[in-house]
Amino acid sequence: MSTSSDVLYKIQNILDKINDIDQDIRFMSFNDLNTYLSDPEFITLFQTQAPLTTNIANGIVMRLNDNISEVQNQAIKCLQPLMPCLSDVQLKSIIHKLSFPTKPKNGGEIDNSIYSTALKSIVANVSPSISNARIVTSSLLPVLQERVRNSVDDLDVLIALLTRFGASLTPDEVLTTERTLLQVLQEEKGLLQKRTITALGIISRYLESSQYLSLIQFIQSEFNMKKDDYNAVKNLSLLCGTVAKADTSKFKSFLPDLLPIIIDTLQMNLIGEEEDESPELLEIRDASLSTLEILSEFDHNSVEPFIKNLLDVCKTFLVYDPNFEDDEGDIFDSEGDVKMDDKNEDEDEDNDFDFGGDDDDEYDIDDAAFSDDDDQSWKMRRHAAVLASNIAQNLSGSLPLIYEEILKLVIVRVTKEREENVKVVNIEALDKLIGASDNDKYFYSTKVNYSHKRKSSDVSMFSFPDPKEVLNEVLPVVVKYIVSDINSKSTSVATKHAYISVLKTYINVVEGFPAEDLSKVVSTISELSKVPSSPFLKDLLELVSAVLKKHKVAILTPHIPILTQVIISGINDTYYRTSLEGLDTSRNLFPLFKENKELSGNDLKDVFINKISQSSFDIETRKKAIHALGSLIAVANLPVDDANQSANSICEQLTNELLRVDALQAIVTFVSVDESANSFSTDWFFETAKNIAAFLKQKSLTVRSETLNTLHALVKIISSRSGSQASNELDLIVQTLLGHVSGISSPPAAEVPLIGTIVQIFSETLGVVDNSISSQIIEFGMFVLTQDFATKIQSSILDLFDKITRLKMTSNIFDTLSKLPFTGDSLVPAAVAIAIVNCKLFEKVDILLQTITSGSIPTDTERALHILGNVGKRTPLSISLEGVYSNFESSVDNVRSAAALALGDIIIGNTDHYLPDLLQRLISSESSTNVYLYLFALRDIVYHLQKNRESHVSQALLDQVWDTLFSLKFKDDMSEEGEKTLVAECIGRLSIIDPEKYLPALQKNLNSPEASVRRSVVSGVKYTFGLSLDKYDRLLRPIVVDFLALMEDSNLGIRQVALSALTSAIHNKPLLLLPHLSRLLPLLYKETVVNESLIRVVQMGPFKHKVDDGLDLRKAAYESMFTLATTLPREWQLNLFKDDQFIDRILAGLDDDQDIKVLSCVTIARIISVDVRVLLSKRPSTGATTLEELIKKFTAILSVQLKDTALKQEVENQIELERNVIRASLQIEEAIKEATSVSDLEFSEWAEFMKSPGIVSASK
């Protein structure tokens, strides 16, 4: 290891050699110097040796005038590692020397370009501190402002300076630089103007509002004054696009003024005229169309008013080809309908697939006479295609209009475009246009009457057909042309990739092709897949997946062999990603095998086995192959020998620890299907069960869980097969499991599901295993029944006792169960009820009723109620329920709860008989306690009715329940919350049972004068948001906004419930809300504002205390805003975060109550992590940036000093708040670090904030 003195000595030697006469020595000296400077070990040494670094800097500057370019370049490379070692004085010095270089000693001219390159290196590599930024800008900016008029190199240095340190410029410096650049733009020509436009775009970001307005006004006035100056118009168009792209938030307010001007510069009226061929006009159009591409990417609301203008531009320039006369005709007739001629159908029939040209092509004299070298019209067509893509993506709310105007035109251009790169862009535009009609994209997701079945929307507002209808109309011609062109020898690889993407998108959007078109597509897929080392295979597999998913079996059946071979080709591909895609695609075949048993899966079986057995394949591929083979055995009608070969191949992987779990899961897949299980002998099941039972001793919980699941599946088959051998083998398996669970009393929570699986296995084997083993199983069941964890495996344990009692495995089961200890949540009453029902011990019901009626011992009464309820749930009873109702008056809470539960269960078993009486009692009850208990029972009944739609309950009875619920009146306060919640759940579930009837009824009740009714309505709808119900959602979608609009209700409680419902809807079903956000957001923002009228002063002894009755409302509103910021799809989030009011209200929350401050911290961090540019946007209310406002508010929170007498809760609240500020700050810091579209000092204030004492001390 070199010492400091050694390094210093070596560096001095190097500095001596950089002036050597030998150019190779000079070159190698700089190379060695770069090595030392780049070594982190020596950076401290260089930083402390100012004379040395000064000599190094001087040496580098001196050799920049070297007559050997390689030496100059090597010297510049040394500047990068040198920058961190320089002091402020040295940095100023080297910048000065590079800015004002001395003439070479040989008297030659100064090469300014090399010095400019060195300055750019300094600007790019100097440490991004505020002090360094000021040194660089103050040293360079005045010099550059003088020189940019004459030097592109200096202009490039200025661009680098503005890009990195533009945020450090003072307002005066920004203004002076802008004026200088505008002078250059007006006075100079050529490349200087182009680079000046780039610089102006960067500097525009830092202009103050008035200065930015002046720049926009300059652009507008120059457009008006110099409309005849082609060069000026071109540059102004480019400037407009550059400025717009630099800061969309600033520019969008000027979009209505400038976008029409840009369109006017295209001079579309001259097309076809002699002036249209002017090269200068083409340059203007090139510039203006590129600007329109940028402007069309602005948010929907800003650009939508100009959609017709933009579509006109697309229509004009998609076909702009003045140097080519098309004599081939159109694929659409004069009315826009598809012309289906067969003119060229046979032309490509015998075409072979090839990626080269046609060897037989001859030189065409006519082609030579009309060279395309000078034809620049293709640029216009390319811009128009990109513009069409942007319109399809960003303005798809007007999709019917877009389709009417340009869809068929884009299709035509795909068929006729001569330039390959333009053709690909047209195909991509077609892909975007088709994809915009996807059900999940903006147009259909925001249509309130959208139907998944009809594929229609509420387009009655348009005079145009539904987009999906249009796509189905043009489908034949699109498929015909794509298939024809994709088969052509001359079609490029890029074009074919684009075509495949279009076909995939098309199939997914229209959900299947007609048989004739599908045949063409499948044939093309087959041919493309046969190309040696096909570059299309992965894309083709994705297309095959779409074909298999979106078509019915009948139409697919003829094509299954072809598609199977394509999938096999993919699986066998050497590239593992393609192989994985092939395995994923193969799974889409399995539903077809299930529906059509005549399909053969032998070819797939062989390729799966090959993938599984070859250890040379990666683990992920083998895992997928195992699952695929298991599924194939389950659904394909494989011959017995083939099925056994496949199963054994999977079983062989049980010895591989990395594949064991997947092999176990695959076994479960195929043995769980009766048809496939019949292919295997009982001996195979015994042998497999015996082998996997050994895995129960492994430590891995996952392995043991999957082992038990597999044993359960195997044992289920073995138990169904009679014979003494089955009994004997099962005895061994069950004894192994009994030994595994012996001594278990308080298993870990993670082990409880395993015990549940073991209980299921025991249940399957009862009646087959030896009686002594059955006795052990029953004993184990009795033990588990009394354990605390039994409720977690309730279904398994009760199924076991159901089988015990049905098989009458023991004569005294009722007495045995009755003696077991009982607790409130015990399963013992359910087991006793099973014994009563299965053993026909209905005389026990009378004994239970006597116990319930007497009510002498509360625990006996509670136990009897639980048992009776479980009996009534399992079999209809016709008994008097007076004894049950009487226990509603019990003084013991557990007895009252048991009575309500029993009542609900009994009525579930005989609804028509008992439910009217319950409803009558509910209406007439004057006891709030009894009302709650009645509703508790009713909730269980309605839940059962909703889950079991086949229950034969009359509509009249359902209507009676509905009317009863709305007849209940509750106090308008925080009391009776339990009753209100139960009513809401019942209303919600009833509306799900019959949405066609009850949703309109709910909507009608929104106008009820009774606050309790309106509250019940919105609460009931809120309850449904947590459930997945396609039919209900489809009917709710158009009217959901009416329920949520109760945020405007005069009643505070209802407004709070409506806000809570909004939060639930955002979280669970955001697509329901998307069409209505424009109406809901203003209501939401309104609820975040402190309402002074809701603040009252309460006298508490000698003190006055302010009570804010609107606080809970604001909390609910901020919870909704948080959910919006975290739940919506990203594209919607980005649009939402452009809403100034949304950001303003979140920032305002940082000045509100403790809980709201916490919510605002979390929300703002989420917003910045999605779109960091929000920090740089200016707040309309204050004129400050979001960053400045955020730092101010975070600093205020961290600066709070509590008094020594502060309460413990106040201290804890402040600590929690500081913790959330720190957490949010760290998330914002991470987002800033990952930002690539901002300069280093754009967030300099934030960097200073993160170093401030407040945040440093709080972080500790």
TrEMBL record:
InterPro entries documented for this protein: ARM-like, ARM-type_fold, CAND1/CAND2, TATA-bd_TIP120
Keyword S-adenosyl-L-methionine: no
Keywords: Repeat, Ubl conjugation pathway
Domain (TATA-binding protein interacting (TIP20)) ranges: 1072-1251
Coiled coil: none
The keyword Repeat appears for this protein: yes
Gene3D superfamilies in alphabetical order: Leucine-rich Repeat Variant (1.25.10.10)
Stretch list, region Disordered: 328-361
Biased composition (Acidic residues): 343-361
Entry-linked Pfam families: TIP120
Alphabetical GO biological process terms: SCF complex assembly
Family classification: Belongs to the CAND family.
Name of this chain's protein: TATA-binding protein interacting (TIP20) domain-containing protein
Originating species: Geotrichum candidum (Oospora lactis)
